[in-house]
Every structure is written in C-alpha cells, then in structure tokens.
Amino acid sequence: MNRTYVLRSGRMTDAQRRSYETLLPQYSVPFEEKTLDFSRVFRNNNPTIIEIGFGMGIATAQIAEENPHINYLGIEVHKPGVGKLAGEIERRQLRNIRIIEHDAVEVVETMVNAGSVDGFHIFFPDPWRKKRHHKRRLIQKPFTSELAAKLKPDGYVYMVTDWAEYGDWALAELSATPALINAYPSGFAEPQPWRPRTKFEEKGLLQNREIRELFFKKETRFTSA
Known about the structure:
The protein has one domain: Rossmann fold, CATH 3.40.50. The protein is built from nine helices and seven strands, in the order αααβαβαβαβαβαβαβ. It has helices at about 15-20, 25, 40, 60-65, 80-90, 105-110, 145-150, 165-175, 200-205, and strands at about 50, 70-75, 95-100, 115-125, 150-160, 180, 210-220. It has a seven-stranded mixed beta sheet with strand order 3-2-1-4-5-7-6, with helices on both faces. The mean pLDDT is about 95.
C-alpha cells in the first residue's frame, strides 16, 4: 500500500518538546515486528480501541478520560501531536492510553493480532484530494479488510471526514469489505454523542464543509476477514 501520510515539519512548542523528550518514554510502545499483548501493555483485560492518526490528541485524551474502563492505543507520526498527547496524559493522570509513533498501516499489519481490537477510530484522515493521490487514501481495500481482520466480532470502525467526496469513497470501500456491515443502512452515521468536536472540525464547519461519519461493525458470524 502507498504511504498514507506526509511527515510535516510542524513546529513544536517548548512544552510539546519537553513532553516528547521526557514523558513519551513512559507512555509509548516502540514499534516492533511482533504482535502486542494488550493485557500486558495496559496491565488489564479491558476493551482496546485503536485510534489511527490522533492529530494533537486533545479529543483522544478527553475520550479516554471519560471512559477509564477502555484502553486506547493512539498511532501518530506528527511529533508535535505526539508530544502534546504525552503532556495531556500526564496532566490528566490517564492510565488507559499508550502511543505508537510509527506508520499506522505497518503497525496494524505487523503488531495487532487478528480478532483482538474492539474498535478503530479514524477521525479526519488526510483526504488526498487530488485524483492522482487517491491511491494514498487510508480507507480503501485491502486495508479495510485488514481492519476487519483485526476486529473482534461486533467490533467497529468509526471514521469521520470533512471532505464529502472522501466520505462517499470510504462508504463504498467499507461497504465492499467482507465481514463489515453498516450500522446505519441508509448510508452515513449519526454523530456519536461521546465523540468531542475538535478544533479541526470547527474549522471545517466554518468553511461550510459537510461532516460525514461512517460506523461499520464486524458481523458476529465472522471470526476473521
């Protein structure tokens, strides 16, 4: 699969840099070519959600704070965001978040066991707007089949985008993925009440962009995709 992200050199604030350098080692999981045991990573047997591309991590931290009975594994390559989330974990004294700073596709393919994930959060992924770049979009087959394979039966994929055409694309790709079924048969999902609105989302709304949400679940009869 083509690389689905571009490493942007966003400037780190002093606070983000300090958190990245001093706190990240406490809250990160290094990339390794072996599968993770979530019960050992989090030291419990709670459900585990993976967030792909958490941006600056504020929404991630808020969701985790409001759901201490759920584990969250955030994957991101943007260093300012990684540093910011590490700082939020410390500030809020969260014990249910870990970070992997690496390519999410490789992490999911290499480090995640089949049938081990309770849900994937994919909020505002890069839409790769130019047609020639569509091949880089995260939500497309065969990666959607990879997500389905990693889900437990009845686990979910929850995607949100402010790029309408990408929403249509993702709806088609997820609908064509064996084992996944749309929880909203009419098409797009209703906003989930537990998902906080992000600054990025507010900016999109101010630009009159339509927010499109998708919520697909793994059929319980499937044990693998």
